[in-house]
Structures are given as C-alpha cells and as structure tokens.
Amino acid sequence: MSPEIERAAAILRAGGLVAFPTETVYGLGADAANPAALQRMYAVKGRPRDHPVIVHVAWAEQLDELALDVPDVARVLADACWPGALTLVVRKRPTCVADEATGGLPTVGIRVPDHPIASALLEAFGGGVAAPSANRFGKVSPTTAQHVRDDLGSDVDVVLDGGPCTLGVESTIVDVTGAEPVILRVGGVSEERIAALVGRRLARRTAGEIPAPGTRASHYAPNARVEIVSAAGAAERAAALRSDGLRVGVLDTDVGPAQYARVLYARLREADLDGLDVVLAVAPDDDGGLGSAVLDRLRRAAAR
Fewer CB in a 10 Å sphere around the end CB: N or C, the chain? Predict the structure, then answer.
C-alpha cells in the first residue's frame, strides 16, 4: 500500500474529507458511520441535508455488512456488475451507516467502484465511504483532480489524483427495496444489461419521485446556459445566437455516446473557462445506455 493511500485512509478515520477518483466521477469521501464527518461533507458541498449520498465499499461481500434483508435481485446485479457503475438502493444497517448519509431515510445506495485508486483507498479504510461528487452542489461534476481543486480548494483535506475518469458520467441507480426494482437514475450500466440480468425491463423513476443522488430537476449546470438542440438545427440556432452577440459553443454527437459521456463535464467546464454564454448540446439518442445518461444530464443542466 502506498504512503499516499495510507495517509488518505487515516484522514478518513479521523473524520476528514478525501477526494478520490472512480471510473464515473471524482467523489468527496467521508466515513459513512461518522455523523460529524458527514455533516462537514454536506456543508462543503452545500448539499441539502435531506439529499442522500452513495456509500462506496471495496468488495461486494460488504453489502451484507451495511444492508439488511438483501433481496436476491440485488445479489444478482451485484455479482454481475460490481465493481462497476451500478448503485443498489437497499435497506441500511443503522449501526454501519449514519442517518446523515441517507437524508434520514431507512435506505442507502451502495456501490463498488471500478478504479484502482478507489479500490486501494476503500480496502485500506475497511468500511463504507460516503462520497457524492467532489464539487459544489448542483454544479458540473468533476472528472479530473484539477476540477476538484478548482471547485473545493482547501475545503478538502487531500485529493488523490487518478487522471481523467474513464466513464465520465455517474452510476446507474437501481432501487431494490420495493416489490419491483426500479431505476432511479440512468448511468453507466445500461438498462438493457439490467433487463437481461433480472429477466425484465425495469421502470424508470428518474424524476425525483424517490429521493436519490443527481435526480433533482436542475443539476450538473455550468454558468453558461445549456440548450438541447437537434443535429439538424444546431448550426441555425448557433448563428441566431451569435447574431445577438452571444458567445456560443456546440457539443455534438458525432463522437459517439461513450466519448460524449467521457468528455461531457469537461466540455461544460471549458465553456465557463472560455466565457461562453450558451452551450448548444446536440441531443444523443435515448438508447437506454450512455446516450440516455448524457441526455439526462443535459436536461438537468438545461433546467437551471
């Protein structure tokens, strides 16, 4: 184990905050069982206290350490998708996950990230690490260590640098606590894969009907205004806005959904650095996979 990882784990045990990379975005980590550490994490982000966060663990076997009455469907999904970009909402063990991590709810979202630095940190720490995205609440998620430093500065005790995130958008969230599992957020694991694993396509409940990370109507927003456009209408709309004296950038789908997802947040941040007034984002297909995840993030960014 590297000295850097040992130091970061010690900071978590002492109630500190550690930003670390995952394959999705960078997370702002705190001990999931430490109310004071979690309160500080919420304050640093400016996150509403009733908005739950995801708890990250090193191994799928830890699901039973943090959760009660884990249903078979959760085990099927965990076995197939962990480590990976899937979060499972289960009933929590109150002694292992503080109420501050779950917005006071009796449930908790748990995932095993697929990143060597995240894995090393979680193994060294041993328990659950609550980690929303390492940025101010409602703003663009960070996909590099520099994004974290730009957003949080000295408010975080240490930033572990793992380079750019390989996936670039957050995990899919599946709630397995009801009679039927439902998707609360589209993300890195496709709906088709989930359907193949559980034997049926799951309903989406992604409009915030059930509290879950990243499901508020307005989220992931840069300072620039975001407009979603069709590929055919992008050039005309850009010309009209520029004729009004506005600085305009265009995000296009030509790169494909995987690359679109990988660069989305970086491009939105660059729009602000470049002083753009408007970002025109060509809508990707709602394909049940990364296209759906990108479209979801764009719609929330545009709702600001």
Answer: N
